[in-house]
Structure formats: C-alpha cells, structure tokens
Amino acid sequence: MNIKLIILDFDGVIVESLDVKTESFRELFKNNEKVDEIIRYHHNNRAFSRFVKFKHIYENILGKEYNEQVAKELGEKFSEIVFQKVVACPMVAGAENFLKIFSRTYPIYLISATPQEELERIVASRNLDGFFKQVWGIPPGNKIDYINHALKNENARPEEAVSIGDTREDFNVAQKTGVRFVGRINQESFDDLGVPVFPDMNGIAKWLQKKGL
Question: What are the pLDDT digits (tens) for 145-156?
Fold first, then answer.
C-alpha cells in the first residue's frame, strides 16, 4: 500500500465513547416522560449531528417549538455532559499505541461529527493533540469536505489515504471520497461490505504493518 495519510474517526476508534452519547441524551432529557422514545430515535440515527436530533426531538417527539435559543441551551448542556464523560471513558484497545507508531511516519487527520470546540477540548484534555496534524469537527465542514481537504493538503490521490471508522456511515463517506476504508468492529456490522475489519486498533495496526505501512 502506498499511503500518504491516515484519517481517523474519534468515537469508537480512539475512545470507547459511543455509549457516552446515549447516556448524555438520557441525562439531558431525564425528567421527560418520553425519554425512552428519545433514546430510540438517537439509536436509529447515530450518524446525525446532535442539533439535527434536537430539532427532531423538540418538534416531532415533544411537540415543542425549536429555535436558536433552544438549540444554544441544549447544545451547551449536552456538550458539558459529553465532555465530562468522554474525558473519563477508556481508549479503544491499541489506540494509543497506534497513534504513537503511525504518527511518527504519517500525517494523521482526526475527523469527527463532534462540534469543533468540544472536540479540540476533549483531545487536549486527554493529551492526544500532539498526534494529529489536524483535528476537524463540525461545523464548519462535513466529513466529505474534510477528507477532500486533507487529500489536497498532502497532495495525495484518494487511494493514497486510509480511513478508519466504526460505522457504515464512515464507510459511505470513504466510498464517496474514494479513500481506502478499514473498519473497527463496534456496534455495526460490515459483513456485506467486503472491507477489512478488526475488533480493535491492535488488529488494524498489525494489518497495516503487514501491508507495508
């Protein structure tokens, strides 16, 4: 494999934080009688941003008005809950060693659907910022735009990048940008996609090393 850069998702690839988002939604709406319906909606729409979910929850589940002020208040509360939980949650097995090994040779781009300021704060609090060439969350961009920007930064063709994610949405983004994809098996199956998959970052690191990285 002729690789010039590595692209990583955050939740479920670097830290075991997928359940954190569920716990955070439950805590945010804990006093609401429709909290179980809210959690089901969250589970069925993991790839959506929290603000898309907030809008749907308010307008379609709670039957309440959703506006900029509501979005701001919910976003701030949710961000603080998530921050405390993600900073405390364990790393994916092998993730720290993966970063130490591959960041010596390859630029690593962290691309996540987590809001930019929150992502930067979490990464810095966990002392991981030194491993990444760029840390990109939302807004302003989306994952497809960010991957294309990373390719341009490194003067790389799509096949010269490898993206590692733990959801089918991560796979779909890789397909749309043309980059190689490796899956970390977590809460979604990749069985029908014909891509290499591994239970943790130890397995992914060994596979990449066998491929010459």
Answer: 999 999 999 999
